[in-house]
Amino acid sequence: MNRFSRKYLVRLAAIAIFGILIFNFVLHPFVVQTEGPSGGIRLRFANMLAYRLGEPSVGDVVVLKILGKESMMAAQIIGTPGQKIDIIGKDLFVDGDLYPLLRLDVREKRYDGRVLKDNEVMLISLTEPPTALGILNMSKIIGKLL
Amino acid sequence: MSRKSILILAASLGVLLAGIVHYFKPNDRKMIQNNIMNIVQLVQTTPLPDKLIAQTKLAKKLLQFTVEDLLIFDDLRSESEPLISEQDQLISYLYAAQRIVENAEIQVKDLSIEVHELGQATSEFVIDYTAHLRINSVADGVVPVSIKWTKLDGEWKIRSIRRLDIFE
Lengths: 146, 168
What we know:
The complex is a heterodimer.
Chain A: H1 3-25, E1 27-34, E2 40-47, H2 50-53, E3 61-65, E4 72-79, E5 84-88, E6 91-94, E7 97-98, E8 103-104, E9 114-115, E10 120-124, E11 131-137, E12 141-145
Parallel strand pairs in A: 8-11
Antiparallel strand pairs in A: 1-2, 2-12, 3-4, 3-12, 4-10, 5-6, 5-9, 6-7, 10-11
Chain B: H1 3-24, H2 28-44, H3 52-63, H4 73-77, H5 90-100, E1 101-115, E2 120-133, E3 138-152, E4 155-163
Antiparallel strand pairs in B: 1-2, 2-3, 3-4
Helix pairs in contact in B: 3-5
């Protein structure tokens, strides 16, 4: 093996290792499919370090795992640790404020003054109108969608 | 060809043959996986029927995958607007879904099958679906489900289905 091809192989290996590290520990690929005239399939990434280095915020769109490695979904945070969640009838309240344009999920969850713990967030779907999904343990979140 | 070479060749062929037989021999996991795929095939390949008789025929086809006590679709048939949201059993869910869904594309993801003792098994997977509704709109989503199976007369039948919820 000559010196040139050896150098080339070392670079290739370095790029491969860098790629494996990036896509396993920093950026997780996520395919977003949208409907409508301007819809389509787009590749986006979830920042896996977002909630290791920072706190979740209301409005963040996150990617979460559902069962195994293959199935993931995106959802939006509407409640962060310390906030109070109530579902009264068909209405959802965060810290006493009615959350607009929301239809409750088929699972018909009931929260009565439920305060979110340090590792919990309240999520809604990205559909129109949004659906209340429920309270999720942060360990299920892969990362914040970029 | 030496005797040693012949022995090595025969042993290799034996291992290869055993591998092929093992691969193609139906086992419990494969039978359950086939059942799941057959159900998906039944529901998604053609538009779901909008006529009551055709709906009943499809429901009966699906019943071959279940034990008899899931036979509850007659109750649903009598309702003008069945609530699919409150059904967690396959037949009732699908029977009611036929009323509002015209066509569906379904993908099964993260399938795991665990075979227990005494002819019992559990499978868990995620249904990634796009449903084309009869009211000219599209709904899509992902639903994790768990199915409990029972082996009856050598065939795996669905005993119960429940939706898994990752949210509290």
